[in-house]
Model the fold of this input.
Amino acid sequence: MRSLAIALLGSRHLRNVAIIAAALTFGAHRASAALPSALRPKGYLAPFLGFVVLFWAIFYEMNLTERPRLVFARTPWAQSVLERLHISRFRPTIWGTSTHVQTVVCNLINRMNEAMTPFPQYIRKTIPAFDGNQVCLDWASDEALRHAPPDAPIIYIEHGLAGSPEDNYCRNLVARCVERGWRPVVNFRWRLDYGEWRDVDAAVTHITKLYPEAPIVATAFSAGAHVLLAYLEAMGSDTPLLGACVVSPALDLVKMISWMETPHSATNPAYANAMESMMRECVRRHSQHDSLIDSTELRAFEDELAHTRRVRCHWLYDKFLSLLRTYAGHPAAAAEEEEQLADARRRAKAARRRCRHRGTPLFASVRGTATSWETGPFGATPTVAAAAVTAAAGPPKQSRPDPRTGRALDPRPPQLAPPVALPTSEDVDVMTPVASVVPSPSPDDDDDDDDDDDTGLGRARRSSARRRGQLPGPSLLGRAPAALPSSAPAPSALRPRPSDGGGRASGRASTEGGGGGGDGDARSLAGRVSAVLGKYAMSPGPLPSAMYSPFGHGTAGNYERTAGNNLGRVGIPCLVFLADDDQLMPPSFGETLRRAALANPNIIYAHTHRGGHCGWHEGFVPTGASYAERFVVSFLAAVLSAESHTALIVDVIQRANTLPRVRSSVM
Done:
C-alpha cells in the first residue's frame, strides 16, 4: 500500500492538472462576481472537479494514448507482415496509467474478473520429457473446437514465473484464440531451469505429430519468454514453428533479478519480495514434479530456506540448479545435449518437408555483415556490428557540403555505438571465490585520493569517459577490500532469521562456504553480487561469466542460454513487445532489443511508453483481454496470412513448372 500511495501521489501529471484546475477555479470564482447571483457557482468543489475532468481528458487523449513504435529491418517479409497487421491506439485505463497501477492493481482486477467468468476447461495431456519426467500440456476444450478442421492453426503458450494456465493473461489469450477457431495449448511449466529448451521441443514435436497439417505459432510471457527464446535460438530456422511473439520478455534473468534487488526506487523492494515468493513457489513446484532430484539434498535445501527470512533470488536459482541431475548446459551432459539438438533439427526438417504450409521464401535469415559473432564469456555471442546499419542503407550517396562550414558531410547514417566494455572477473573484487572478502575500506584511502588527478577537469574527463562507456563506473563497494582472517566465518549468501527464543539460532542459515552468522547484506556475498550487478544491468552487453555464476556452484554452462545474448540466432519471425516503463526489466533491455532488431531481420521490436509488466490494460474497468493480448493475436494472424499467401504463390509456380510445354505452330 505504501508503494501504491507513492506511485499515485507522486504523479507529476496529476499534480500539474490539479494545480491548473485550482488556479482556474479560483479565477472563475473571482470573475463570476459580475454575474447575477442566480448564475454564480456555489462553492469551489464542483468547478474544481469539472476542470480536473476536462483537463485530464485533454491530456489523456493528447499524451497518454499511443501506438506501438516498431523497430525492424526493412525486408520483404517484414513489409508483407506489417501490411497485414492492424495496429490500433493503446488507451490505458484512465485512472491507472502508471506502471505500478498497470502491473499490480489492474492485473488484480482483471484476475478477479476472470475468476468469476465462465471459461472453457482444460484437458491435460502428459508426454515424456527428455530426462524421463513429464511435460504437461493443457488443451482448451470448447464446443467450437470439436468441429475445427485438422489444419486449424495451433498456438502454443508459455506462462510466466510461477504461473499456470489459469492466469488471467493465459485465459484471455486462449479465449481470443478460440474465437478465431485456433487450437490453443498451454504448457504448464513446473521446471525451474529457464534455460532448458528441450521441454519446448518435446511439446512442439508432439503437436506436430498430432496435427501434421496444422501451422503452429507460439507466444510467451515474462520468464516464459526466456524459455521460448532459448528454444528458438537453439533451433534457429530448423523449427516447425511459423512465428512467435514474446511479451515483457525476461531477456536476462540475472540482470532482471539484480535490477529488482537494487533499491533504485521506493517501489523496488516490493517487487523483489514478490519475486522471492514466486521463486520459492517454483522450487516447491519443481520438487513435486521432478522424480530424479536427490531427496536428501532437497530436504537439506528446503530446511535451509525454511529457517531463512530473506534470500537473494540469484543465489536461490543458482543453488537449486546445482541440486539437479541434469539441466541446460550441464558440463557432464554436454555431448548428450548436442546429440539431442541435432536430432531435434533433423526431425524438424523432416516435418517441414511433409507439411505443405511451409517453404515460404519470405523468411529472412541473418546474412552478410548484419550480425558479427564474437566469442564472449558464453561462446558465440551475437553483437551488433557498426556495419549492420551501413550495409542496410545501400550504396553510399554523394556527399554534400555543410552550408555553415563548407566541409563535406558524411552521407552515411549514424552508426550504432559499440557495446559497453564490461569488466572481467579480475576487475570486480566481489567475484573472487566464496571464501573471501568483505567491503572494508583501507585506512589509506584518503592519501591515495590525493595522488590522483582530483581536479575539476580530471573529474569531468572521467565522468565523460564513463558516459561514453570507456571506463567502468565507480565500484559500489569502494576500494578493494581486505581479506578476511582465516578464523573469520565465510560470508553468508542468506540473511538469517533472528533467534526467536526457541533455540533456533540464526547461524543455521549457512552457505556451502562455511558457517552462517554474517551481519546482513553488507557482509553477504549474494548481497554484494546484487549490488554490483544492479549497476551493470544498465549495460546492453553481456555480463562477464563470473557475474552470472559467482557462488561456486559450477553452473556457468547454464547461463550460456541467456536469451538476451543470443538474439541473433532466432531464425523465424518473432515479435518482441515491451513497455518502456516496465519496472521489472532493466532499461538496457530496450537497447538490446533495438540492436537485435536492426541486426536480425527476423525480429520486430515493438514498444510503448506505458503498459507496465504484462499489463497494457484498457477501459475504465480493466476486464477482458488487454491490448497486449489483442496485439499478439493480430501479429500471429498476420504471420499466418503472409505464410498462406506466399505458400499459395509457391504452389502455383510449382504446378506451372510441372505442366507439359506445348510448342507453338505459328512460325
Remarks:
- Residues 357-405, 409-523 have pLDDT under 50 and may be disordered.
